[in-house]
Design a protein that fits this description.
This protein is of the alpha/beta class. It is built from nine helices and six strands; from the N terminus they run E-H-H-H-H-E-H-E-H-E-H-E-H-E-H. Helix 4 packs parallel to helix 9. The longest helix is centred in the first third of the chain and has 16 residues. It is globular, with a radius of gyration of 17 Å. It starts with a strand and ends with a helix. The mean pLDDT is 92. The structure holds magnesium ion. The site of magnesium ion (MG) has 9 residues, from loops.
Amino acid sequence: MNKQIIFDFDGTLVDTFDVIKNIVINEYGEYDIDFELFKHKGAKGLLKKANIPRWKLPGMILNVTSKLRKSENIKLFPGIVDLLYSLKSNYKIGIVSSNSKDIIIDTLKKDNIENLFEFVYSESSLFGKHLVLKKMCKKHNINPLDVIYVGDEDRDIIAAKKAGIKNIAVTWGFNSKEKLSRENPDYLVDSPMQILEVLPQK
Ligand SMILES: [Mg+2]
């Protein structure tokens, strides 16, 4: 029986993609940016098609990241609050993210759901998210076999597998269903409530 559900934050619990998309359109409307292409092919595919000069990229990323940090528009996806309340009766739930803990807690507070989580583990590693998952388990004394990790990107699936953790990939975030399928997630879901269907219930 899996006892812990650990969620990624951006693209899984909150709709960061749409906020980034709006910032980019406002700031760099002169480029023809195909955001759907990003979901299928990642950043490389998008940049190639949009003809953005490489030297401009670091400045653009800094600008978008700093506007994203100040954004008040980051919201939970529809259905997430209901999902979390339903899970709470059978599971412990946590968050692991490279986003800052303050931003995550502030966002959760807007919906009064910060107390539903056992912990928010914030860390990023240049050497891969699997190391972050392993450290999170160690710090919170969790057996990786008791965890299901929910994420929206193909690299989340790869990281979970490397860390020996079961995973659920969600199709409402940064990657398309096709891109996620290629990494063979344990489960692939199209809506928050579908997560309840794939998880064992008491
Ligand atoms: Mg994500």
